[in-house]
Write a structure and sequence with these properties.
Elements lengths: L1 H20 L2 H17 L3 H14 L4 H13 L3 H14 L4 H13 L3 H14 L4 H11 L6 H14 L5 H12 L3 H14 L4 H13 L3 H14 L4 H13 L3 H15 L3 H13 L3 H14 L4 H13 L3 H9 L8 H17 L3 H14 L4 H13 L3 H14 L4 H13 L3 H14 L4 H13 L3 H14 L4 H13 L3 H14 L4 H12 L4 H14 L4 H13 L3 H14 L4 H14 L3 H17 L4 H13 L3 H14 L3 H13 L3 H13 L7 H11 L1
Helix pairs in contact: 2-3, 3-4, 4-5, 5-6, 6-7, 6-8, 7-8, 8-9, 9-10, 10-11, 10-12, 11-12, 12-13, 13-14, 14-15, 16-17, 16-18, 17-18, 18-19, 18-20, 19-20, 20-21, 20-22, 21-22, 22-23, 22-24, 23-24, 24-25, 25-26, 26-27, 27-28, 28-29, 29-30, 30-32, 31-32, 32-33, 33-34, 34-35, 34-36, 35-36, ...
Length: about 700
């Protein structure tokens, strides 16, 4: 045994001596070779370390930086990839490919102006570099004042390369954004005649038809995609989606099964099918599909994580943890092992087991101190524990590493608020809105902070600007209406509620808010007369009748409200919002079994269209409660609360818990709900219930 150890020692010493005698270029190449081998094994974390070692040996090695950039992209590290490409492009300023890749990362990092500048520099030297031109056109396409230049550039490209698809698709997207859908459609059809690669063009045409709700035309295109390449599963996925939109679920199911068959049960298709089943409320079937998928693809991490997520969502987190802990980590590379361990920590956190979650995260960070997912979980755990200092330190590290990622800045703002550092929180939120003006959460968080600081005018200005940046956002319009209501500007509140309704007709809250606004009118008789006149002038429009029904409901005229909803269902028998609202009124205000049965049928119809709408789920739960099925009602409310913390949902949960004899849990919900001082229709009832429970 001693001899064997001695031999091993000699081998190790010899290897070290040989390596120390190697020239710098040989050392560099050895690190590069090792990195390349690790990339082949999909071990990107260790490959990144090898490429960094090569750079330490040769800081001027362009190919070392390029390899580092590519592996950083594989790891989702945009900042690291950008730095590596930028250094490579500075070392080799005449290489246009490096300048273009740097520009691409600037674009992905929400710095389109810098990307545009870099690409124009490339085109000064190489005016016919079409790779640069196409990337520049895609940047200009997102700038309304430069779309004409983009279209001109793309037209020139089509003249030289009429058989290439990119210019047809990008030009059609620009035309569609300008409202010129007929021109966009015609251009794609021209491309279909001239290009041999028809798939991307057909998908673009399908998108145009879907946006115009031309579902029959969309179906023809989807069918053509499957005929074009019967062995491509993605065509059947598209076909399934169109059938689903048409309400043809049997046909959709056939398309899904065909996709699975032609793919050879590939994990991505199994995952997509399970998600489809989940949204159809076929939870047990979705679980079986994932379990079978894992048996067919035992090395698929995606499927294991998806099954764990499904189990967690459906109230079985212990089963999810068991599944992940029993997984043989040795079959996965280091990066995937870390993902799996992070998933365990995330589930533990969702269960409220913060100490166990933190132990998992700390072990991950010992192996990979820069692991962004683990750092994010550490920050969330710290926030859950009200440990502001740890949260701030961890999130600052993430913000430094990923300065363009607004999610981290929003959480850092939360940590600063927890630490009573309102100004620092506001700075982070303002930076987030500048980095990504499309991030609605950043705007709303900033407005909420301003409200907390009693700056109503500032909050209104914030959301007004946000709505200019995001003119199609019903959510922003709705929140802005609420602010104007607080400011006693009912005219503007009404204006923005109507805007929210127009932008998102199936969203129930704006209707309720507008009905409440009308119900609070000082002259209710005049308001009722105006709404009745609007209904008479537009008998085929459901909007005014819905507003009248909501007005009646909010003024306590329930039978009149029921009458209006019954009329609405004659106009649109399957409209989910009408079905939901009438179902709730039947269950809440009529106390006969016949009305309860009607309510059950109506809510099932509504949920068949929108299975995950929290308010619809709440109505179903309330009907179950009225039917004496308390445990089922509680389960449905919990599912709804995952999507929304609506005060009505919380009040209903407290009612069910109280009826189940869980008075302390009910009291806790009511105390937290009433402490917020916000107005909701059941507030008075909630106060009475809390008084009884106390």
């Amino acid at each position: 045994m001693k001899n064997k150890k001695y031999v091993l020692f000699l081998i190790l010493v010899s290897s070290l001596l040989l390596f120390s005698c190697a020239s710098p270029s040989e050392k560099r190449d050895a690190f590069l070779k090792k990195g390349d081998e690790l990339v082949q094994k999909h071990d990107y974390v260790r490959a990144r370390l090898e490429y960094k070692n090569a750079i330490k040996v040769d800081p001027n090695c362009v190919k070392c930086y390029v390899k580092l950039a590519k592996v950083s992209l594989r790891l989702g590290d945009l900042k690291g990839a950008y730095k590596a490409y930028l250094t490579a492009s500075e070392l080799a300023p005449d290489r246009a490919d490096l300048q273009i890749e740097t520009a691409r990362l600037l674009m992905l990092g929400h710095a389109p102006d810098k990307a545009e500048e870099k690409l124009r520099e490339v085109l000064k030297k190489e005016p016919d570099n079409w790779k640069a031109k196409l990337l520049l056109a895609s940047i200009l396409a997102k700038k309304p004042d430069k779309r004409a230049e983009a279209l001109s550039m793309l037209e020139e490209y089509r003249t030289q390369f009429p058989e290439k698809t990119q210019s047809y698709i990008l030009s059609a997207a620009i035309l569609t954004s300008q409202g010129k859908t007929n021109e966009a459609e015609a251009l794609i059809k021209t491309g279909l005649k001239k290009c041999s690669d028809k798939k991307p063009l057909l998908r673009s045409l399908l998108s145009i038809y879907e946006n115009q709700h031309r579902l029959k035309d969309a179906l023809k295109v989807a069918q053509e995609l499957t005929k074009l390449d019967p062995k491509d599963p993605s065509g059947y996925l598209i076909l399934a989606q169109v059938y689903e939109q048409l309400g043809k679920r049997d046909k959709a199911e056939e398309a899904w099964n065909k996709a699975l068959k032609v793919s050879g049960n590939k994990p991505d298709i199994i995952l997509a099918y399970s998600q489809y089943l989940y949204h159809q409320k076929a939870i047990d079937k979705a679980q079986k599909v994932l379990e079978n998928g894992i048996r067919q693809n035992p090395k698929s991490l995606k499927l294991r994580l998806a099954l764990a997520e499904l189990l967690t969502k459906t109230g079985k987190p212990q089963d999810a943890i068991k599944l992940l802990r029993e997984t043989d980590l040795a079959q996965f590379n280091i990066d995937d092992q870390l993902k799996l361990r992070n998933a365990i920590a995330k589930i533990l956190l969702s269960m409220g087991k913060t100490d166990e979650a933190l132990a998992e995260v700390d072990n991950i960070l010992k192996d990979d101190p820069q692991n962004a997912q683990a750092l994010l979980l550490k920050a969330r755990i710290a926030l859950a524990k009200k440990d502001a200092e740890t949260a701030i330190a961890t999130l600052r590290q993430l913000v430094d590493d990923f300065p363009k990622k607004t999610e981290y800045r929003l959480l850092l703002a939360q940590a600063h608020i927890l630490n009573n550092e309102s100004k620092l929180a506001e700075d982070q939120l303002k930076q987030a809105t500048r980095i990504n003006p499309k991030d609605l959460g950043a705007w709303i968080s900033l407005a909420n902070l301003q409200l907390a600081n009693k700056d109503l005018e500032g909050a209104i200005d914030t959301l007004s600007y946000a709505l200019k940046e995001n003119p199609q956002s019903a959510k922003l319009a709705y929140f802005l209406a609420q602010l104007y209501k607080q400011a006693n500007d009912t005219r503007r509140a009404e204006q923005y509620l109507k805007m929210a309704i127009k932008l998102k007709p199936n969203w129930i809250e704006p209707y309720q808010a507008l009905g409440t606004l009308y119900a609070q009118s000082p002259n209710k008789e005049e308001t009722e007369a105006q709404l009745k006149q609007a209904v008479a002038s537009h008998p085929e429009s459901g909007l005014y009748r819905l507003l009248l029904a909501t007005f009646y409901q909010n003024t306590g005229q329930i039978e009149k409200a029921i009458q209006q909803y019954e009329e609405l269902l004659k106009i649109a028998p399957d409209y989910p919002l009408f079905c939901n609202n009438l179902a709730y009124l039947y269950a809440e205000y009529r106390h006969d079994s016949k009305s309860l049965e009607k309510a059950k049928k109506l809510i099932e119809k509504a949920l068949s269209k929108l299975p995950n709408q929290p308010i619809f789920l709440d109505t179903k739960a309330w009907i179950l409660y009225k039917s004496g099925k308390l445990q089922e009602a509680l389960s449905i409310i919990d599912k709804a609360l995952v999507k929304s913390k609506n005060p009505t949902l919380l009040y209903h949960k407290a009612v069910v818990l109280a009826q189940l004899g869980k008075k302390d849990a009910a009291k806790k919900i009511l105390e937290e709900l009433l402490a917020k001082k916000n107005n909701f229709s059941e507030r008075e009832q909630a106060e009475k219930l809390l008084k009884r429970l106390s």
